[in-house]
Design goal:
Layout lengths: L1 E9 L5 H14 L2 E6 L8 H6 L2 E7 L5 H13 L2 E5 L1 H4 L5 H7 L1 E5 L5 E7 L14 E6 L3 E4 L4 E8 L17 E11 L2 E6 L5 H4 L2 H14 L4
Parallel strand pairs: 1-2, 1-3, 3-4, 4-11
Antiparallel strand pairs: 5-8, 6-7, 6-9, 9-10, 10-11
């Protein structure tokens, strides 16, 4: 049986307990023993982290200690998988090495929930995480993230420039900007999966998003 740690907490607006509970039964049905942690202390336990095949994190904002960040990063480099969604992974902490691990950091979203489309990258349409998805219509927060070229981008969202008549006035960008929304990356021997979708339970339980997320968790887990 493989071993999964679910680490959750931080800002309650991202419902870390309810959100992770969506996926705990799935992980168990997929053959994982699941251990839930409501603090970050486990990251500083090298023996426990080395035994984990997968860490699923939902921890928005908050503070991570140097020992905790170092422990998490070392475990992933050694083969532990790391996965999460939305602010629980790219809106967590202010720690440079942590964001180098994730390959992206949240910097902006339009006010409130907006209608938009998540589009699978055509050249990655056969990837097991997004196969048979195509595109997904969403009404939720739309994340602008800064990312790096090591990511394998599986799906994107596009920001169109806002006209001067928009409620907030003209946008500071003057052309369409397409940004990563779902990606994977390798970090040492470990795999990382990130989805920017998941502000609320309705997002995570939307069938195609749930499918992407579940597949991403399995993909990220240590390859035995």
């Amino acid at each position: 049986m493989r071993d999964a740690l679910v680490v959750r907490g931080g800002w309650e607006g991202h419902v870390p307990v309810a959100a992770t509970e969506v996926f705990v039964p799935f992980l168990r049905s997929a053959g994982f023993a699941v251990e839930v942690h409501d603090d970050l202390a486990v990251y500083a336990d090298p023996d426990r982290m080395a035994a984990a095949d997968l860490v699923v994190q939902c921890w928005s904002i908050g503070t991570i200690s140097e020992a905790q960040a170092t422990g998490l990063i070392a475990a992933v480099r050694a083969g532990t998988g790391f996965a999460g969604w939305h602010g629980g992974i790219v809106g967590a902490f202010h720690h440079n090495a942590y964001h180098q691990l994730t390959g992206g950091v949240f910097v902006h979203h339009p006010a409130g929930f907006v209608d938009h489309e998540l589009t699978v990258s055509p050249d990655r349409a056969d990837h097991p995480i997004v196969r048979d998805i195509g595109s997904v219509r969403l009404h939720t927060e739309k994340y602008w993230v800064l990312t790096d070229p090591l990511n394998d981008v599986l799906a994107t969202v596009t920001f169109e420039p806002e006209p001067a008549t928009a409620p907030a006035g003209a946008s500071p960008w003057d052309r369409s900007v397409t940004l990563p929304a779902v990606w994977t990356r390798s970090w040492g021997a470990g795999r990382v999966f990130v989805s920017t979708v998941g502000h609320k339970l309705d997002d995570l339980t939307l069938p195609p998003i749930r499918r992407i997320t579940e597949r991403g968790l399995i993909w990220a887990a240590r390859q035995n």
